[in-house]
Amino acid sequence: MALRIRLARGGSKKRPFYRMVVAENTAPRDGKFLERLGSYNPLLAKGNQERLVVKSERVKYWLSVGAQVSERVHKLLAELNLLEKPVIADRPKKSAPRKKAQEKMKAEAEAKAQAAAE
Question: Which domains does the chain have, with CATH numbers?
């Protein structure tokens, strides 16, 4: 039984509210879960204490038992210093500008450098 700490969506359309839950990784996103560990409300301001509410002792327990965390939950728990900040991979090469655009940007940078030198 592989356990995962992840977010289960609640709230209405365009008004999301998430519960942080421990569930089997085969269970549906909003389906059966073992325990509710907290909540996350992305609509509140970042400084608001109600934005992210977590039972830290229970999170530590589930991590010690071997539960894995999802990427988003890892980021949220890193904000509370319960986990180390996750390493985020570089952007994929697909999203990089094409060859012609890169050449144009390089030429503009050289032009700026020459103008600054004069």
Answer: 3-79 (3.30.1320.10)
